Amino acid sequence: MTASSVGKPLDRVDGRLKVTGTATFSAEVAVANVAHAVIVGATISKGKITALDVGEAQRVPGVVAVLTHLNAAKVPGADKPTEMTDKVVQVLQNDAVLYDGQPIALVVADTLEHASHAASLVKATYAAEAAICEMDKEIGAGFAPKAAPGRPPPDSNRGDIDAALATAFARVDATYTTPCENHNPLEMHATIAVFQGEDHLTLYDATQGIFGLRKRISKAFDLKPENVRVISHFVGGGFGSKGSAWSHVFLAAMASRATGRAVKLSITRQQMFAFVGYRPQTIQQVTAAASKDGTLVALRHEVTSATSRFDTFAEPSANVTRMLYACPNVKTSHRLVRLDVATPTFTRAPGEASGSFALESALDELSYSLKMDPLALRLKNYAETDPDEKKPFSSKTLRDCYTQGAAKFGWSKRKPEPRSMRDGNWLVGFGMATATYPSRQSAASALARVKKDGSAQVLAGSQDIGTGTYTIMTQIAADALGMSVERVHFDLGDTTFPETPVSGGSQTASSVGSAVKRAGMAVRTKLIDLAVKGKGGPLNGMSAEQVDAEAGVLVSKQDRTKSDSYEAVLARNGLDQIEEKIDEKEKAERKDHSTHAFGAHFIEVKVDPDFGEVRVSRVVSAFAAGKILNRKTARSQFIGGIVWGLGLALHEHTERDPRTSRVVTKDLADYHVPVHADVPDMDIVMVDEVDPYVNEIGAKGVGEIGIVGVGAAIANAVYHATGKRVRSLPITLDKLL
Ligand code: MOS
Questions:
Q1: Which atom of ligand 1 is nearest to the CA of 240?
Q2: Cβ of 243 less than 6 Å from ligand 1
Q3: Could you tell me if the CB of 621 is within 6 A of ligand 1?
């Protein structure tokens, strides 16, 4: 057999393009005669536009058009989401202002400079109304989100929580809150829209889902889906914010149609805080109760998250509480309140990241009530089967994550009492938490093709949002085809390629990888068939089982001197190429299993007792996520998730002015994210795990699990260091003084 490429820490196949600046991100695609568009955002959060003066803007040299609600074409589908990832968009359809920064005009000019200058000259007059952005003011009007098809229901209830609570030995009742957080990928959202005539549209877009975008845009503009082509060769991070088509994509298309030109629209860093989603604020009430030996008897997790007045997104924070521990009595709920803000959306581990902060903090609090080690408490309540779905796990190697992580970290050196460990003047704290994330799979297609020169081309629509999709698909394809990675060219990011799902929910490796593997294997099978049954050749007459594929050469297993190259097989049979397209569905065995990745974080913090400064000094995180396809790109995903977790715990917080509901932290100076100096070396343990059920490639997905539990592990370490329990993220200095 060819030495396997899957699992190896192969460098990114697109790495050279990226470090030399020659990878073309959406805004960099060279399109002839392109005009530049700039969005003018509202400066109130609620009310009506009473006048718009665009005269001065129109007189700026080079300005091609100024679109406003007074002259923009109607887009009937703008407020009609049909898919889970669809959002209600604000595309100059009326005079209403629903949130700060909402698009109210679009200036199109020959250069970005002219467009930006002209945009600054658009003058809006408003009739402003009082805008509310504080959750506590609206909490009385909380409502249950509608159950979404294929998603867990908003509420759950098993056992009898009240009866169980009556018998509990130890009990924690606490309210935890997480703030609004904005995605800040390096690459801002960008689109180049090119209408050809009235009914053909090409979009170069920074998106996590080219096919979802095509569906949404073709419906909204009443175009045939096959007449809309979405191209997205490189995406500089998405984290959920690029999973939906937001207002700017529609606006770029509207501008292209109105002006007859290609229109480029790259939003600004400030606009990243306006109309492309964010992680909503949550208020989470948790009750956790145990018997004297630490056996959990009851868990209750009631979540309220904020959404906009006009659209609905619920952060599913309590889902993790349903399945993480073996507890017979569990009750959870999700509620929403409406505020005068933009609509939130998926943000790295939506639900799990925020919900695990509450659950894993509460368990830590319970461990102190029980005088029990926090890790021992988790082990005591280890769920051998999924207590929510009542199914066996397809695989679960969490126990090894706990033990290997704890050993590497030196968890046994932890002194149980808070404020009992020091390093000079610094208070030292150890904290831990469990991580988990669902392992999803959606239908996906892929095409593999071996050409007469012996090279292969493999195609799947998909997109690489920075995770390493190009690289791992090349590895999977090479192994499946029996070729070396150097001879395999994998391409993605084009709706003319086979259809694939959104790169969200950590499902790309699982979904697209399975299709790529099966397409590659189908081509290999065809080649072997031709070699043994086709015209002549050294392997002719053998059975297919007697033949191996090795670096593009078919070899007899019995007599390794007998071989036949792919080129030779194709040439002899008069073929230019062999190709197979596979439409892969969810693996059948998934139905009977619960599919999740697991992990455990062990984190050390040092806290300055005088100033409240928290430094994360050590991180050891162990993950069991099925087959690791590439140890280098997987490690990057885990690390990236954990860095986000540091941000959630200590830094990130979108602040609004309560008087106006306007965002005041609109750039990376005011919106703090962890920088290098905040991030210690991380020790990532990848625990071996074989999963025959989760999908064709046995990989569970690693994009989101890294962040899950980090907020709690840090908060728990801060408590251990200081004796101060912070239940409201981020843990800023003021909360420790
Ligand atoms: Mo992820 S938040 O599902 O892109």
A1: 4
A2: yes
A3: no
pTM over 0.85: yes
Task: Decide: 313 in ligand 1 pocket, CB within 6 A.
Answer: no
pLDDT digits over 310-349, tens only? 999 999 999 999 999 999 999 999 999 999 999 999 999 9
Grouping H, G, I as helix, E, B as strand and the rest as coil, residue 115 is helix
259 CB-side CA count, 13 A: 27
pLDDT tens track for 7-26: 999 999 999 999 999 999 99
Report whether 107 contacts 118 (CB < 8 A): yes
Cβ-based neighbour number of residue 312 at 10 Å: 17
Distance 317 CA to ligand 1 centre (A): 14
Q: Is 548 left (phi over 0), alpha (psi -120 to 50) or beta?
A: beta
All domains of the chain in start order, with CATH:
32-129+185-268 (3.90.1170.50), 278-440+591-735 (3.30.365.10), 442-585 (3.30.365.10)
Q: What is the position in ligand 1's atom list of the atom closest to the CA of 345?
A: 2
Q: Tell me the best of 183, 246, 279, 348 to mutate to test the pocket of ligand 1, counting ligand atoms within 8 Å of each CB and taking the most.
A: 348
Q: In which residue are the tokens 């392997």 written?
A: 539
Task: Return the structure tokens found at 190.
Answer: 């960008």
Alpha carbon distances (Å) from 216 to 223, 248, 407:
10, 13, 50
Atom in ligand 1 nearest the alpha carbon of residue 505: 3
